[in-house]
Amino acid sequence: MRPSVLDPLFAPATALSGVGPKLAKALNKLLGDETHAARVIDLMFHLPTGAIDRRPSESIAEAPIGEVATFSAQVTEHRPAPPTKAKAPYRVIVEDETGDVTLVFFHADVRHLLQTLPIGAYRIISGKLELWDGMRQMVHPDRILDPKLAATLPSVEPVYGLTEGIGGRVMARIAAGAAERCPELPEWQDPGFLTRHDFVPFRNAIHALHHPVDLKAATGETVARRRIAYDELLASQIALALVRRQQKAAGRATAGDGALRHAIETALPFTLTDGQRKAIADIHDDMEKPERMLRLLQGDVGSGKTVVALMAMAAAAEARRQSVLMAPTEILARQHAERLAPLADKAGLKLALLTGREKGAGRRQVLEGLANGEIDIVVGTHALFQEGVAFHDLALAVVDEQHRFGVHQRLLLGAKGEAVDILVMTATPIPRTLALTWFGDMDVSILSEKPAGRKPITTRAISLERYDEVVGAVGRALDAGAQVYWVCPLVQESDTLDVAAAQERFEALQAIFGDKVGLLHGQRPGRDKDAAMATFSGGQTRVLVSTTVIEVGVDVPNASVMVIEHAERFGLAQLHQLRGRIGRGSAASTCLLLYKGPLGQVAEARLTIMRESEDGFRIAEEDLRLRGEGEVLGTRQSGSPDWRIARPEIDGDLLAAACDDARLLIERDPQLETPRGQAIRTLLYLFERDVAIRLLRAG
């Protein structure tokens, strides 16, 4: 049960004064998601993104030009628009002993202005002060106040993220109201830790964040923000510690004699790298222990993760147990099955494929083989974990290319067997900080060596205005014997997005290059997708127009040119994955990033790092900085991000402290039953760490 002290925060936003149905609808759009409408806690954690300095100047002469200025002045004149110029603005002159300012109002309500700014009255004026023809003017002032109400104007006014239907002043008022509802909470931090870091109580920190005393308090790192960020990191690390304890608690030792692994290694057309050998040894050691394996295998594109997984699955087969390799797309699952089958055959292993497309007798045969133990390894998609798929004795689940595969899903993987070992693979290298926050419940193996023989890829960013030049370059590449990927962000033309569609680009390129052009996207029937991939792999088609369905795993060594249209719309990890489809053969490779200008700051930073580096780990660090982590420990797939406060304040010191604190807490108080443990339970509910809450309920 959620602690009752938190009930005021989990009330709907309509519980706040002034939030009626119309405003609630706008708040739901901004802060809610498919599981709930906006709540008081969502507003409390909706922190200012900036602030406006409204501290008053001593006089008009000292008020800053080009910035928000606040000053006191007397109204001296009203200048209505001339009758012959209907669209001309209404002007009001205000002045003090040092100068004057013209207040400009378009589409003015004259009666309202006469009441608000009567001639001879003194007013406090605040807004952006500018020069026009050498004269000071302020267009539509933000604030016009009677001096008696000066105390109601904050010196530093917080600025919040908004949506249609919510103004800045309204948001500031209701966000402050949400902060006021934060109760005094039991302290979950160690007293000594609080003293060392000068941390104030949680409620005080929330209040300070919504009532900044200066610009830094709203936009920079402060003690209050660091306190809340640490609380959030601690909640996440405790959740991961609980998951790790639950997963590691029960396991089965899977020990083999090495015969099948030796047969596979002998059949390989290459020599294993030192990194692969180390990862294989780590995985084998984990599998032999009477604890469940939870390991992340990460390596750059083409670093040989699949071979490592095959050796792990062979180790399970040596113990007469089964393994499953799950891929995110049917195309990748089929490619895995085709490439692993010859190696499995040479070792005497029976490998099968199971996706949602398999029907009839073939599917029944696979299901029977899994149930009676005849099949050693099955490769497939999420269909592997559907109801009706039963295993004789599942030992190992390998999840490929699931860099968004969160803690919640990892908890569900073992449902098809007894204490199933789990190996998660990702070709998106993960920075240490992200690995600790996202995969803190897992051990990590890294394949850092570049594959032998891979050549550097030349990457260029080119404006879409030079589209014809790019098509010409593609034609020359085809004449030289190359194959080309052309990636578009959409399948079909959109009425709302001005970006290229794969179908439209396919037709345009086909008109130029004829039957050399093929089309692949996720909406095509499965057999058509297989045919498109097969003809491109076989060289019958030379240009493959595709969506990001080729992002992971697809391997055509002769493909040496990658064109990514509207590259500014893709994330860094996705661009790196797409680029990794080329450079796999002996030919020099080129990646062209076509963008539509003008570029925003983040998009420009992405394209710059792509031009500068092929190092997946450096790219991942930059991606983390630009984009953040996404949701990992919650259950919602959209809406509020996993990190409400801690981004971008996640740093090594905070994270290391939270990791250590969480580990010691769970070791000393496994069920969080001490007074501090009970306070920690409140913390987990406060930050909605659903996985941890469920594990504690299960006991």
From TrEMBL:
Query: Quick check: keyword Nucleotide-binding in the entry?
Result: yes
Tell me which CDD domains the record gives.
DEXHc_RecG (cd17992), RecG_wedge_OBF (cd04488)
Gene Ontology MF: a single term:
DNA helicase activity
Q: Which residues form the Helicase ATP-binding domain?
A: 286-447
Q: Which residues form the Helicase C-terminal domain?
A: 466-625
> Any idea which UniProt keywords this protein has?
ATP-binding, DNA damage, DNA repair, DNA-binding, Helicase, Hydrolase, Nucleotide-binding
The lineage's top-level taxon is: Bacteria
> What EC number(s) does this enzyme carry?
3.6.4.12
Keyword DNA repair assigned? yes
Which PROSITE patterns has this protein been placed in?
Answer: HELICASE_ATP_BIND_1, HELICASE_CTER
UniProt enzyme class: hydrolase
Entries under Pfam families matching the protein:
DEAD, Helicase_C, RecG_dom3_C
Protein name in the entry: ATP-dependent DNA helicase RecG
Q: Which organism is it from?
A: Bosea eneae
Traced from the root, the source organism's taxonomic lineage reads: Bacteria, Pseudomonadati, Pseudomonadota, Alphaproteobacteria, Hyphomicrobiales
